[in-house]
Design brief:
Distance between the termini: 19 Å
Order of helices and strands: HHHEHEHEEHEHHHEE
Structural class: alpha/beta
CATH class: Alpha Beta
Largest sheet: 7 strands, mixed
Number of domains: 1
Bound molecules: S-adenosylmethionine
CATH topology: Rossmann fold
Number of strands: 7
Strand content: 15-25%
Radius of gyration: 17 Å
Helix content: 40-55%
């Protein structure tokens, strides 16, 4: 486990400051990105997005035979294959507030999962799940758009819906601590990703937002603090690929 540093979040990324959190803006952004999201995600992350999802699921793999799995900010269901690989008995419930992402998720559920995934189109911060109703909560790449109060709310929601002994794992892209790598990584997100979006027939403005949200999310320390502030959660933090992504995982005590 690597300890979190508290360096200021966006020394280098400041020219494109993060937008203030607005649920409607985020929902509309993902509604617009829904059609291109899958192919852009694989192509632009150079395969890392898939690799990190696999590593995410390893973090919840040692919990016996959990059945009820909550996938928060589930998008089009990109994490389900890994959930099933690690937890073949899983009953997956997926939550996302974007109608367009959910429409694609429904198609994926029917085509590849026999329609077994339960889909809930709702705000993860105001979820309808019952207290202690899940064995596992996972989430890939859904943290970076939240500000500090929303992160605290999300962490408290995770503590609420997990049964005692249940486990959770979140992952998102973060700014690496190494300055040279940080410059290269942010330049890639700021310039290359929007350019690639044009080449792949997507809207570069939408993919430029990735850089702006990462600017606000920094090294993820606010998210770590939010999870650690929950008395019912035991939290571990791991840096992946020199800090280009960070996982926050643990269990409900
Ligand atoms: C970057 S995508 C990640 C999708 C998927 N989990 C993956 O692994 O690629 C982030 C998703 O989070 C959803 N999202 C963001 N804020 C949300 C909220 N407050 N409640 C529910 N969904 C949210 C967006 O609609 C979007 O589909």
């Amino acid at each position: 486990m690597t300890e979190i540093s508290h360096r200021p979040a966006v020394a280098i990324a400041s020219p494109d400051a993060a937008p203030p959190y607005d649920a409607g803006d985020v929902r509309r952004l993902f509604d617009r990105m829904a059609t291109s999201y899958d192919r852009m995600n694989v192509a632009l992350s150079l395969g890392f997005a898939t690799l990190w999802r696999r590593q995410l699921l390893r973090l919840v793999g040692a919990t016996g035979s959990p059945r009820r799995v909550l996938d928060l900010m589930s998008g089009r269901g990109e994490t389900w294959t890994e959930i099933e690989r690690r937890l073949p008995q899983a009953e997956i419930t997926a939550v996302d507030f974007s109608a367009q992402m959910m429409a694609h998720a429904e198609t994926r559920s029917r085509a590849r999962f026999g329609g077994r995934v339960r889909l809930r189109q709702e705000d993860a911060l105001n979820g309808t799940a019952e207290r202690a109703s899940f064995d596992v909560v996972v989430s890939a790449y859904g943290l970076k758009t939240f500000d500090a109060p929303q992160l605290e709310r999300l962490a408290s929601e995770v503590a609420r819906v997990l049964r005692p002994g249940g486990s959770f794992a979140f992952i998102d892209v973060t700014e690496p601590a190494c300055r040279a790598l940080r410059i290269a990584y942010l330049a890639y997100l700021r310039w290359i990703v929007p350019l690639a979006a044009v080449l792949l027939l997507s809207d570069p403005a939408e993919y430029r937002m990735l850089h702006r949200y990462l600017a606000g999310f920094g090294d993820g320390s606010r998210a770590v603090e939010a999870f650690r502030s929950q008395p019912g959660l035991h939290v571990e933090v791991r840096r992946l690929f020199f800090g280009c992504a960070t996982s926050i995982s643990g269990r409900r005590t």
